[in-house]
Specification:
The complex is a heterodimer. Chain A contains 18 helices and six strands. By secondary structure, chain A is an alpha/beta fold. Chain A has a four-stranded mixed beta sheet. In chain A, strands 5-6 form a two-stranded antiparallel sheet. Chain A starts with a helix and ends with a helix. Chain B is built from ten helices and 14 strands. Chain B is α/β, with parallel strands linked by helices. In chain B, helix 2 packs across helix 3 and helix 8 runs antiparallel to helix 9. In chain B, strand 7, helix 5 and strand 8 form a beta-alpha-beta unit. Classes of the chains: A alpha/beta, B alpha/beta. Chains A and B meet through helix 1 and helix 9 of A and strand 6 and helix 2 of B.
Chain lengths: ~450, ~300
């Protein structure tokens, strides 16, 4: 046992100390969260200098209707035409010119002129404000009383509620489940493939460096193989744990920072618009909408059963990894160089890729028979099952899939041990499947 | 003490050929044992069976009177023919890892490594990566790692390949010193001169079979061709007449007045009688028996078995 620990230690530390590992481990969660936040954040940043928008209002009634902020000012200019301002546009320092035509009530159109692409945030802010304003005017024209107008102000959100077999109701979000299912399935695919291939390269490195016989004069070949497999699994788990911790940390950190800035209505509406289509209505200048949006995201976050997902991820990662890593190890032991790996890699890559494709399909219909079957077959179950779990999977399927996986990886490790033991000492021989079959039958 | 390491009737069958066919050998304690044989004879397979890397189909390996098991591995230092190191690892770190795998504690390993690195004058390599070393340099590190834990049995598979003459000598002397300190050494090689210099006992195998075994002097005398080399002053004709029938002569060129002749006899006449007869006919300058080199023995033994088949 002491010796296998030494091997695990070496496999683990040499990999964890690598620069590529450190960079990837830290960068990935940052990128992930950035993908979620950057668009909104950038939009806010852009609006940081006060943008002055010249308004030419032919109706002469909208002044004050569009809320101003520290970052967005509206200057009403009377008795000019768009062309006049356009002439000295750069000198005037305006960001854009908003033209509200007289016939707006019929045309429902305004024009925003600028010498640059205006941001979605600005457009959205103007549209929302004018939407509300002119709706109110129209309603007034139809003689709808003020209190009725207030009462009919509508703000619709969809709460998806899922009931389980026990009759318990859970509210969740279809988008959130889709995203979580997709991410965990894809992550599983990536982890199994990435770390499985690392096992193969590690075995080949030992064989081509000719160090393997030096080592197996001290430990059993099986110990060497399992030490490598376990060491690399620990590398994977370390990366996974750091990713989860960093992702949550950065997410809540970003939430905190962004919430502090939420006094800025521009930022509010922009981010809100990008991340959620909630809250559009009669009321204008939706201050506080941002907090609302975050509450929703957080709510959706907490509706997802993270302990179950993370627990299952760990189980299926370990099971799937052991299954594939042992196959990868036997391929690495059987060949002398990279080019020879091709023929043996194919039967390993096909089930992984199949798992990935079925996962895509399972995202659409997580309880279709194809999704259920492939989430039970051990070669594809880790990937497909992970995609199904956020939607809710009957316990018997989870259990059966788990047991099948355990039986299969024990079998594959046993098989890999046999091939490995013969393969690592075999040099300069072209190996084919018939040869591998013979190795399986060797006594020792 | 004898019966230190015994291989008994080892049979190993690979899918399409018989690698070892009832091979036996007996390595006395404190000796240097040469395992010889042409390429593909089964030497490496036999060594792998002794080091418990593979199991034999039949036969057994006894170590100090008991069947060898994985527990005995700690007492073996094995330098395989296919030897290498992790290229990306630092030399010192790697040496430490390998001796720890042998069961040494970190502290003890570190202490002994420092000693050996000084002895071989390679302290400056400690923090180098293996890929920066030459092949010979890497071999030195491997040698150190093999002998570091003071194993009772040392097994070297082709230890001299890749060394220059200076380092070959260094390793040879180290092997002799290890033997003198009580270790038993088994090594396989193609270099017959090193066998003559180092070995106390040999076993020669060919095509998976024992063909020759025993103490090296005894083996060499077994191959004695009953040939003698004589340098003398006098007439070679009287010499030949004096020795009479049963002798064959091969005259070498004379140098000055010194005659040089190779004498071969078939009748097992005692050397003493030969000398008396020669002495009475010519003045002897030197007379010695021609002892065959291991090279000749090797070739003759291997060709002899090949011919029989």
């Amino acid at each position: 046992m002491n010796k296998i620990n030494l091997i695990i230690q070496r496999e683990y530390t040499t990999r964890v100390k690598k620069k590529s590992f450190i960079i990837m481990t830290i960068l990935t969660p940052i990128l992930l969260v950035a993908l979620l936040f950057i668009p909104g954040y950038l939009a806010t940043k852009e609006d940081n200098q006060a943008k002055v928008i010249a308004v030419i209002d032919k109706t002469n009634i909208t002044e004050g209707a569009i809320a101003e902020s520290d970052y967005m000012k509206f200057k009403y200019i009377t008795d000019t035409e768009v062309e006049t301002i356009k002439k000295d546009f750069t000198k005037s320092g305006y960001y854009a010119i908003l033209y509200i035509p007289e016939n707006i009530l019929i045309s429902n159109k305004v024009q925003l002129y600028s010498n640059q692409q205006t941001t979605i945030g600005v457009n959205e802010h103007i549209v929302k404000a004018l939407d509300g304003f002119f709706t109110n005017i129209k309603l007034k024209k139809e003689n709808v009383p003020m209190d009725i107008m207030k009462r009919i102000a509508t703000n619709i959100n969809v709460d998806t509620i899922q009931w389980t077999s026990s009759g318990e109701e859970k509210s969740g979000s279809a988008e959130m489940v889709l995203v979580i299912g997709y991410i965990s399935g894809f992550l599983m695919y990536m982890f199994i493939f990435m770390f499985g291939a690392q096992v193969m390269r590690g075995v080949m490195e030992e064989k081509t460096n000719r160090i393997v016989e030096v080592i197996i004069s001290s430990v059993k070949p099986f110990q060497l193989m399992m030490g490598k497999v376990v060491g690399i699994a620990l590398v994977g788990l370390t990366q996974f744990v750091i990713w989860i911790a960093l992702t949550f940390g950065i997410f809540y950190g970003a939430k905190f920072v962004l919430l502090k800035n939420s006094g800025d209505p521009a930022a509010t509406s922009i981010t809100a618009n990008i991340m959620d289509k909630a809250n559009s209505g009669v009321a204008q200048a939706p201050t506080g909408q941002y907090q609302e949006m975050f509450k929703q995201i957080s709510g959706k976050f907490s509706a997802v059963n993270f302990p179950l997902i993370i627990g299952c991820f760990l189980f299926f990662f370990i099971g799937g990894y052991l299954l594939y890593a042992s196959l990868f190890a036997s391929v690495g032991s059987a060949v002398d160089n990279d080019t020879d790996t091709q023929q043996f890699m194919l039967p390993i890559t096909i089930p992984i890729l199949l798992g990935l494709f079925v996962m895509m399909n399972a995202m659409q219909s997580p309880n279709s028979s194809i999704a259920v079957i492939f989430s039970l077959i051990p070669l594809t179950s880790p990937i497909v099952m992970m995609a199904r779990i956020p939607y809710g999977v009957p316990p018997w399927q989870l259990g059966l899939s788990g047991i099948l996986l355990i039986i299969t990886f024990i079998g594959s490790i046993w098989m890999a041990g046999k091939i490995y033991r013969t393969g690592i000492l075999m040099y300069g021989k072209k190996v084919n499947y018939a040869e591998l079959w013979k190795w399986l039958k060797y006594k020792n | 003490m004898n019966n230190f390491l015994i291989a008994n009737g080892i049979v190993k069958q690979f899918s399409n050929h018989l690698a070892l066919d009832k091979v036996s050998m007996n390595v006395p304690e404190g000796s240097i044992f040469g395992l010889l044989g042409p390429n593909g004879a089964g030497k490496t397979t036999l060594i792998r069976i002794i080091t418990q890397i593979t199991a034999p189909d039949q036969g057994e390996v006894l170590f100090r009177g008991k069947k060898m098991t994985m527990e005995d591995i700690f007492h073996i230092g094995y330098l395989p023919e296919e030897r290498g190191l992790y290229k990306k690892m630092k030399v010192g770190e790697q040496a430490l890892y390998l001796v720890q795998l042998k069961g040494m504690s970190r502290a003890e390993g570190l202490k002994k490594l420092k000693y050996w690195f000084e002895k071989f004058e390679i302290q400056s390599w400690w923090d180098k990566k293996v890929e920066e070393l030459s092949k010979g340099m890497a071999q030195k590190v491997q040698f150190i790692v093999t002998v570091l834990h003071d194993p009772k049995l040392l097994i070297f598979d082709e230890p001299f390949t890749g060394f220059d003459p200076i380092n070959t000598n260094l390793v040879k002397n180290e092997i002799l010193r290890l033997r003198d300190n009580g270790a038993t050494v088994v090594f396989s090689t193609h270099i017959m001169s090193s066998v003559e210099e180092l070995c106390d006992h040999i076993a020669l195998i060919n095509k998976g079979k024992n063909i020759l075994e025993g103490n090296i002097d005894e083996v060499r005398s077994r191959f004695k061709p009953d040939t003698y080399e004589l340098k003398f002053r006098g007439d070679s004709k009287t010499l030949k007449d004096a020795l009479d029938v049963g002798f064959e002569f091969e005259e070498e060129p004379t140098r000055g007045d010194v005659g040089h002749i190779i004498i071969k006899q078939q009748l097992k006449i005692p050397v003493r009688d030969m000398v008396t007869a020669i002495n009475s006919s010519v003045d002897i300058i030197s007379f010695e028996e021609v002892i065959p080199g291991m090279n000749d023995i090797f070739i003759r033994a291997v060709e002899g078995t090949d011919y029989k088949e």
